[in-house]
C-alpha cells in the first residue's frame, strides 16, 4: 500500500486506528482452544468485528514465533485473511548486517506479503536500506519508544546538543522518504510529539502505547495529525482482551468503534 492509498483509507474510514494482534494462547477465550487453529480463529473474529473501524493491523511477531511452526502458520493465515485495503505491519523489530536484513525483508515482504516491518536503527544505514529497496513496502524505524527503558539511551544528549532519538530522525531521512519510511513514537511520549512533528512533518508515525500503557490519544493527536492523517495509533490488549467470554469479539468491536469515534473528532479539527 502506498502513501496516497493509506491516506485515502484514513480519510474514508475517519480512523487512524491500528489493531494490535498480540494474540496470546493463554489469554484467548477457553472455548476457542477446541478449534484446529485457536490463534487464527481468535484473530479472524477480532478482524471481522473491528474491520469497519481500523485502517491497519499489527501482529506482534513474538506472539507467533513463540509457538513455533504452528504460530507461523496462524500468522500466515491471518495475513491472508486481512482485506487488501488495510495496512499490515509486521512488528518484528529486525535489522542486521546488510545481507541478513535482505533475508528478513524477503521473509516479511515476499513470503508473508506484509506492507511494512518495524526495524531497529542501532546497526545503521546498511542494516535498514535492504528493507527500503522493496517497492510499495515500508520500514517503520524505532525512534522514541513507549517503554520506560526507552529512556536508557534514546534521550541521551549528544555533543551536537540533540538527543539520540532526534539524531535517528535526522539521519534516517537521508535513507528513505515519506513514501517508504515511518517512525515508531510511543503514545507515552506526548510531550515530545510537537517537536518530533517539526522534524518529520510529512512522515507517518506509528504510535503504540494507548490503552494498556496509558498514552493520551487526544494529546498525541493534537500534535501528531497532519493533513494526510500522518498517524497510525495502535492498541493491542486494550482492544483484543476486553472480554475473555464468548462475547470477546463484540467487546473488541465496541472498543474499536469508541476509539474510531474519538479519532473522527480529532481528524475533523485538522481537515
Ligand atoms: O515503543 C513501542 C514499540 C512497540 N510496541 C508494541 O506495540 C504493542 C503495544 O501493545 P499494547 O497492548 O497496546 O500496550 C505491543 O505489540 C508492543 O510490543 C510498544 O508497545 N512500544
UniProtKB/TrEMBL annotation:
Taxonomic superkingdom:
Bacteria
Biological process according to GO: 'de novo' pyrimidine nucleobase biosynthetic process; 'de novo' UMP biosynthetic process
Pathway(s) per entry: Pyrimidine metabolism; UMP biosynthesis via de novo pathway; UMP from orotate: step 2/2
Pfam families associated with the record: OMPdecase
NCBIfam families named among the record's database cross-references: pyrF_sub2
Give this protein's Gene Ontology molecular function annotations.
Answer: orotidine-5'-phosphate decarboxylase activity
Query: Which key words are in the record?
Result: Decarboxylase, Lyase, Pyrimidine biosynthesis
Keyword Lyase annotated? yes
The top EC class is lyase
User: Where do the Orotidine 5'-phosphate decarboxylase domain residues begin and end?
Assistant: 16-252
Family per similarity comment: Belongs to the OMP decarboxylase family. Type 2 subfamily.
Tell me the HAMAP family matching this sequence.
OMPdecase_type2
Q: What is its EC number?
A: 4.1.1.23
Positions of the catalytic residues: 93
Q: What is this protein called?
A: Orotidine 5'-phosphate decarboxylase
Amino acid at each position: 500500500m502506498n502513501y496516497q492509498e493509506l491516506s485515502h483509507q484514513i480519510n474514508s474510514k475517519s480512523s487512524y486506528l491500528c489493531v494490535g494482534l498480540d494474540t496470546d494462547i493463554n489469554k484467548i477465550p477457553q472455548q476457542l482452544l477446541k478449534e484446529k487453529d485457536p490463534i487464527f480463529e481468535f484473530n479472524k473474529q477480532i478482524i471481522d468485528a473491528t474491520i469497519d473501524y481500523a485502517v491497519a493491523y499489527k501482529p506482534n511477531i513474538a506472539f507467533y514465533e513463540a509457538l513455533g511452526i504452528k504460530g507461523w502458520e496462524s500468522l500466515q493465515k491471518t495475513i491472508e485473511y486481512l482485506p487488501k485495503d488495510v495496512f499490515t505491519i509486521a512488528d518484528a523489530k529486525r535489522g542486521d548486517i546488510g545481507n541478513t536484513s535482505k533475508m528478513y525483508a524477503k521473509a516479511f515482504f515476499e513470503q508473508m506479503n506484509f506492507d511494512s516491518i518495524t526495524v531497529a536503527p542501532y546497526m545503521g544505514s546498511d542494516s535498514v536500506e535492504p528493507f527500503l529497496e522493496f517497492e510499495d513496502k515500508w520500514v517503520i524505524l524505532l525512534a522514541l519508544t513507549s517503554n520506560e527503558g526507552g529512556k536508557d539511551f534514546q534521550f541521551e544528549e549528544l555533543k551536537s546538543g540533540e538527543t539520540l532519538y532526534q539524531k535517528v530522525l535526522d539521519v534516517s531521512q537521508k535513507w528513505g522518504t515519506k513514501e517508504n519510511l515511518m517512525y515508531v513514537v510511543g503514545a507515552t511520549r506526548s510531550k515530545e510529539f510537537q517537536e518530533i512533528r517539526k522534524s518529520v512533518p510529512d512522515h507517518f508515525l506509528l504510535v503504540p502505547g494507548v490503552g494498556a500503557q496509558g498514552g493520551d490519544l487526544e494529546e498525541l493527536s493534537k500534535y501528531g495529525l497532519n493533513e494526510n492523517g500522518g498517524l497510525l495509533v495502535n492498541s493491542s490488549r486494550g482492544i483484543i482482551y476486553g472480554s475473555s467470554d464468548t462475547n470477546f469479539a463484540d467487546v473488541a468491536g465496541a472498543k474499536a468503534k469508541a476509539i474510531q469515534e474519538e479519532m473522527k473528532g480529532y481528524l475533523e479539527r485538522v481537515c
